[in-house]
Amino acid sequence: MLKWLDNFWYHHKWAVIISSFFAVFILIGIVQMATRTEYDLKMVYAGPSVMIADENTEKVRSVFAGFVEKDITGDGKKTVLLNAYSVLSDEQLKKMNDEAKKENDSVYYDSSLRENAVKDISTLLATGEVTICLFDEYVYGRFAGRDFFVSLSDVLGYMPEKSYDDYAIRIGDTDFGKFFMSDGPIPEDTLICIRKPAYLTGAGDSKEMTEEYETALATFGKILGFKVPE
Q1: CB 3.0-4.6 Å disulfide test: which of 40, 85, 98, 208 passes with 46?
Q2: pLDDT tens digits, 97-145
Q3: d(CA 135, CA 208)
């Protein structure tokens, strides 16, 4: 038996090694797919608020989860993924430093982090990895004019009176924001908008209008259509 094994290994060792490598690779992929967390809604926030604290991100996720149109993952829950980036414009940084100087302090912010965040967000938008966006005015300005977003009138059937432009509205100018976000952590001047299907921004194909995007679009409409209970 040992002689047979030695002979087999001598003639087939590379085939065994290569086959074993691909078997392990496939197994890892299967495990990752099985353990990957799926979400019913994928969002992005970018602005001056620090959204790394659990209580902040959890509040935003739970509020938006309450408006998610459908449990598309089928796990019995409505879950939200929030990609959060702390981004400061030069003007915001100067204002913060002016305030800090009153306390003999200063604020340090590496501008390269800002540019890296903008690149990351651009990729998320272009590839369709996020749908509903919460952007500071500065961040929104970095993407406005790049044909990323859906017109509010296309979602609602009308243009809100207090819209920022054709594609966004300040969250503080919505009943949703006044009712759910009046005490933070999202600043009231944050703009809310929704990206177009990825195939309309140059990524994906014409079949990208999936259940995930349709759910996000319906959720966005419910958010903007919310009225404060009387």
Answers
A1: 85
A2: 677 666 666 666 667 888 898 999 999 988 888 999 999 999 999 998 8
A3: 24
